[in-house]
Amino acid sequence: MSEAHVSIELDVDAGGLILSATGDKNQFLHPLWLRERTEGPGDFDPNNNQRLYDHSLFPADLKVTGFDRSNGAELNLEFSDGFKSVINLNKIEQEIGWQENPEELPIPKSWTTSLDFSSGVTWEDLDDPDKLKAMLKDFLTYGFCIMQDTVTKKDSLLELAGRFGYVRDTHWGKVFNVKKKPQASDSAYTDAALPSHTDNPYREPIPGIQFLHCLQNNVPGGFSTLVDGIAITERLREESPEQAQALEDVNVRFRYDGPAAILENHGPIVGRDHRGIVRIIRLSTKLDFVPALDKRTLDLFYAGRRRLIELSNDAEFQISFPFRPGTLLMMDNYRLLHGRTAFDGDKGERWLQGCYTDHDGVGSLYKLLANGSQAVSVMRET
């Protein structure tokens, strides 16, 4: 919607502005809200876009006393304390949802095994900002991306994953080696099948994005599996709204108790964001401890958790694919559940390396590209 189609009226009593548009759209803008969005030369530092003022010092009874819309999308404002500045109507309309915001991250879409994910992208593709943005859009929409033809040098994952964020160091190290080991400290370091799960629900904060990079694989089996947490929570809510709600209401204790670390975190199995979109699944059958609650609540919780686990391992929702040397899987650990089919570790070598980054690296890179940047990796302050 163009600013030309929006009418503006001064609300004299409230001291704010009323925006109106076709389709019975009306929005009151509070004077303090407007003051925090002015873009005059003295309002923000041009180098870092940080405010040059302390908004807690504004008069509590501040009002807009006049405005002038003579210059396109710019609206000149005058306030009751004598301050004058300008706001950008296009940005205002984007913030209140009347215009599309190019920086807005894609809304997640749930998927099942009908999703066509076979094509993937090659590592060289990502040197093109347009292809990189398309790849990030798919990742943000579906929760994962499979890249091929990466380098296969030991610990090269640090550079590969570092393109998308800042690698987290945990008690597993910055990079951990997923291969069969004697006296394995985790079931991932065996050749057994792994049911669908999310990683590290006991950490605070939980690692947001997981990378798995294949250096070597010549064993039979060992297919990687992925399940969309949004899809299985939607199915559970369709089947039993009360069970689904219990998984959102009950705070579970997740605990890792190892020789090098004792880690605990609390949270529901299913969490939503401010818009009601499922944003986090905490599902790990080996690490969760529910509190002692009343029988009805726990009956619903246990039934819902059991059904969610069944759905997470159901062929209707679970996709699988093989790793080959140079394959790099990038997946949203808040949303996707991952696992593995069994393999015979005595008949070859299956060596993956893994690491974690946070979500903000991907979000930042997508926003930079949406604003026309030619960046092909996360940018670091110098």
Structural commentary:
- This protein has 8 helices and 21 strands.
- It is α+β, with helices and mostly antiparallel strands.
- A 6-stranded mixed β-sheet has the order 7-8-19-11-21-9.
- The longest helix is centred in the last third of the chain and has 18 residues, at 295-312.
- The two termini are 38 Å apart.
Topology:
Elements: E1 7-11, E2 16-21, E3 25-29, H1 31-35, E4 64-71, E5 74-79, E6 84-88, H2 89-95, E7 121-122, H3 129-142, E8 144-148, H4 157-161, E9 176-178, E10 194-197, E11 209-217, E12 224-228, H5 229-239, H6 241-249, E13 252-257, E14 262-267, E15 270-272, E16 278-281, E17 288-289, H7 295-312, E18 318-321, E19 328-332, E20 336-340, E21 350-357, H8 359-370
Parallel strand pairs: 7-8
Antiparallel strand pairs: 1-2, 2-3, 4-5, 5-6, 8-19, 9-21, 10-20, 11-19, 11-21, 12-18, 12-20, 13-14, 13-17, 15-16
